Amino acid sequence: MVNRSFPIHGSLNICVEPELMIIRARGPANTEMVLQYQREVNQHREQLCDKPWTSLTVLSGEPLLPPEAAGMMVESIKQAEHMNLVATAIVFNDVQYKSISEQFWESIYQRTTLKHAFFDDEASAKKWLKDALHSAQTE
């Protein structure tokens, strides 16, 4: 556990629609922001976890994390999988260093078993999520 106190860097907005959690985050973010994310996201996951659900993550700014925070994100994603999360779509919106950011987040998701994909726009991401949800519901 983090044993220091720094101001939170970055911003976060989480909302829930039927069978979908939408996470909007702007970086750069620090470990303290990931701790806040974990606190907030758990409340929303509990609203969805009775049946399969998906998430749309929209990242902007510099969506990179320090190594400790990246590890915390891996554990958070694994926890969501145990709460019936079946797929995540990631959209980079107004991101600096898009290819580096995609490589960074791919390395995080590769450490989980969660189905995930990267998209250029929210409409394409939501269509893919709808298809992934339908597949999970019919299995």
List its traits.
5 strands, Transcription Regulator spoIIAA, 139 residues, globular
Find the CATH topology. Transcription Regulator spoIIAA
**Weakly predicted, low-confidence segments:** none
For the record, what is the CATH homologous superfamily label?
STAS domain
Strand arrangement within the widest β-sheet reads: 1-2-3-4-5
Shape type:
globular
* Overall strand count: 5
Main sheet: strands, sense, barrel: 5 strands, mixed
| Structural class assignment | alpha/beta
Rounded average pLDDT? 94
SSE pattern: EEHEHEHEH
- Alpha carbon gyration radius: 14 Å
Helix fraction bin: 40-55%
How many helical stretches? 4
CATH class: Alpha Beta
Terminal CA distance? 38 Å
Hey, roughly how much beta strand do the residues contain?
A: 25-35%
Counted up, domains total 1
CATH architecture designation: 2-Layer Sandwich
